[in-house]
Design a protein that fits this description.
Blueprint lengths: L1 H11 L6 E6 L11 E4 L10 H5 L1 H4 L8 E6 L4 H20 L1 H14 L5 H5 L3 H17 L29 H11 L1 H8 L2 H11 L3 H9 L6
Parallel strand pairs: 1-3
Antiparallel strand pairs: 2-3
Bound molecules: zinc ion.
Amino acid sequence: MKTLWRAALADAGILPGEALVYPFPGTQSSTEQFSAVTWLPGRVDGIQDPEVDAIVGELNHSESVRTTRVAVWIDRSEPDVAGLTRHELQHALQFAAERRLARLHEIAEDVVRLAADSAERYQLIPTEMDANRAASQFVRSYFPDVGVDEMIGDQDSALRRDPGPEIPLETLPEQMILFLVDNGGLCEQWAGTKADMRRRLNSAWPGAGDIWEAALKGESPT
Ligand SMILES: [Zn+2]
C-alpha cells in the first residue's frame, strides 16, 4: 500500500506530507456507506460509521488535521485499490480547488440516489467522471501489463474504463449545474419543489440555483 500510495500521490501532484491514507480491511465500511472516503484539511466529525468513528481522534490529531485524509477499504485487486485511491485523491484536488464543488457533489449524489438507474447515473456526475478518468489513467500507467479492458464488468470497472479526455477543473462547477439540469425532475423530487431546489443550490453556491432554474425553463442565464 505504501508504494502504491506514494505513486498515486505523485500522479495527483500531491506532496507526501500533505496527505495520509487509512487502509481498512473488507470491501466497504460496515454501514456500506463507503468503499473509500476523502476528507480535506480540517476537523472530521459526525461520520456515524463504526470503523471511521474509531479513528476520528487520529484524523483530528494536530498533525493529521492539517492534511488530506483518505480511507480505503482494500480487499480488492491491487489495480482496483490503486484506482480507488487515485479516484479519492482526484476528489481532494477538485474540492481543494473549489470547496463549494464538494457541496454540489453531495447534492448530485443525493439526487441520483432517487433514480431507478442510480448506479449508472452516479457515474455520469461530472466530478465522478473526472475522478474515474484520473483513476483509469493512473491504473493503466501503473499496471501496464494488466488487461484493463478485459476486466470491465466487475464492481470497480468504472475505475479502469477508457479514461476519455481530460476535464479542466475550472469547468466542473458549470458541468455540475448542467448535470442537475439534465436531472431536473429528480432534483425537484429530492428538494420538494423547483423553488426549494433553487434555494438549496443557491445556498450551496450563490447563484447556482438561479442558473439551474433558468436553464430548466430554457432561458439563457444572464
Ligand atoms: Zn467519487
